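fyi for ur records
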Amino acid sequence: MKLRGADLLARTLAAGGVKHVFTLSGNHVMPVFDAALDAKLNLIHVRHEAAAVHMADAWGRLTGEPGIALVTGGPGHANALGALYTALAAQSPMVLISGHAPLNELGKGAFQEMPQAELAKPLTVASWTAKSANAVGRDIARALREARKGPVHLSVPNDVLDAMADSKVPDMETSEARTRKAPAALAKAKRPLVIAGPAAMRRQPKGEFPVIGMESPRGVNDPSLGKLADVLAQADVVLLVGKRIDFTLKFGKIFAKSCRVFRAYGDVELPQPTPSQKAWCDDVRTALAYRPPEWKKIQDSLHPVAVCRGVQKLLDAPDAIFVSDGGEFGQWAQACLRAPRRVINGVAGSIGSALPFAAAAKVAFPGAPVVALLGDGTLGFHLSEIDTAVRHGLSYIAVVGNDACWNAEYQIQLRAYGADRAHGLDLLPTRYGAVAAAMGAHGEDVSTPEQLAPALQRAAASGKPALVNVMIERTAAPRY
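which gave:
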């Protein structure tokens, strides 16, 4: 039986275990929308192409299986590219499939023609354009395989999707990860450390050594890692698992000159700490857990610490998922909140991904509590994705820290130029809870400390996507 290229694409995705595709429609990909019906692929239809990529990114991070984003060609593809950078920095398993101008019109000024694979290449581990309907199944199988290393892009021309193919859905390859032993120097060290990159964090190297996961753009100053810089400076042996020596590690200058650094990739089995190492391991855990004692004194206010204290009750469930964006409020959230699983903006340092991340988390784990924290500036990037959550019944809770300001940049102005030159960064104190309610979600606007706990309780009980807009104090992110 002959199939269209679009049918091969959709059925190969399904054969690879894909059930959900995060997508925004457009001329070039409508054959795939049609083919998704027979392949039984669930289309999560978003409001901006970047949101589709963020959702595929979060799916990949949370499940370990490649998330799939599908967008149209030309400007649709261009809109998706910025979000690919976030996925690349997070080493996220995902595939971006873009529609594309027809092969037989390339070079003639085709509608929305652009060098898509070339544009996506720096943002992916692999990027190419499908050349025929007969090969598109193999292209998708390759994309799913390559995505284990990070984000992949495949452009599929419109005439390839419409053309009839003689080939069948390819057999999907499976591979088992190889576990490597840690270098012997780790067992002999006095003050060993294991530092994992984003992908390795999700696999959790085996053993009792504390594994320090680094996925924040603030690197050694990540407020969620306490006094990390202190223990890094004391280490005599460091094992980097899937982690580069880059700006997050001050290009290696954070380590003592006598420290020996080893690198490993893939799964790593760690040795058991020796009796003399156990005290050091305890010291490392204590340093990572450090939070300034004065935070406990912050009560009866809408300081970010007090807001997070109220939110923590929503995350105490054993299957809860915590989502955090960047910015000053996001840094407070990452420092204060704990949950069994989390997805943050990541090493790329981007903002705007929290609502798409939360939506994907709810698709992946519909029964789990999902709570996202983000600032009011960040919210503006994908506010329209509340509509996506309402349409698809994705009942996450978003808590917006609203200080009516681009506060991260405002704090830079204060530090670098002084208060008299801090300008151009004010926003309106918009009632975003009312905005969310107008879009069909549950919305709350909180302006006093007494209102916070009841608003969070009502949001959790609503059974809808919920947004709680909290007028927080304008304060700098934690630094200690």
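The mean pLDDT is 94. thats all i got for now
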